[in-house]
Amino acid sequence: MLRYSDEVNFKWQRSRTIAQYKSGLLKREDVCDAEFLLCASANFHGEALSTPCPICEASTLYVVPWVYGEALGRASGSARSLSEAEQLVDVHRSFTMHSVEVCTTCRWNHLLYSWTLTRIADEHY
């Protein structure tokens, strides 16, 4: 059985960043700075969103799941599908996941959620 815990929602910060950009307080290069690997991962592990990018309005907006944890070794800091994450938790028991929004056109990106994924023993009553 999987347990999702310690969820942190970053959507308020996302909205604030977009508002600051649209009001001119932030430059485009301040908000459109996704690394190559994040953009490339969106094409393989990302889920396409039906909403346009909040910065360039392109239809290339994705949500990409990332895994983090010392126990993961080289797998830490990489994009993984949810099914791959479930396989990793079978071996490593617990790690942090991030859900990152990224536009592959303008390189906008923002962390949406963070949570801990843990494998717990099935309870039998």
Number of strands: 6
Report, as a whole number of angstroms, the end-to-end distance: 15 Å
Q: Mean of the pLDDT scores?
A: 90
Number of domains as seen in the coordinates: 1
Q: What's the multimeric state?
A: single chain
The residue fraction in helices comes out at 25-40%
Instruction: Please indicate the percent range of residues in DSSP E strands (runs of 2 or more).
Output: 25-35%
What gross morphology would you assign?
elongated
Number of helices: 4
Order of helices and strands: EHHHEEEHEE
* Secondary structure category: alpha+beta
The profile of the biggest β sheet is: 6 strands, antiparallel
Low-confidence stretches: none
Q: Specify Rg, calculated over alpha carbons.
A: 16 Å
How would you describe this protein?
Helix content is 30%, strand content 33%. The model has no long low-confidence stretch (mean pLDDT 90). With 125 residues, it is of the alpha+beta class. It has 4 helices and 6 strands. It has one domain. Strands 1, 2, 3, 4, 5 and 6 form a 6-stranded antiparallel sheet that branches. The two termini are 15 Å apart.
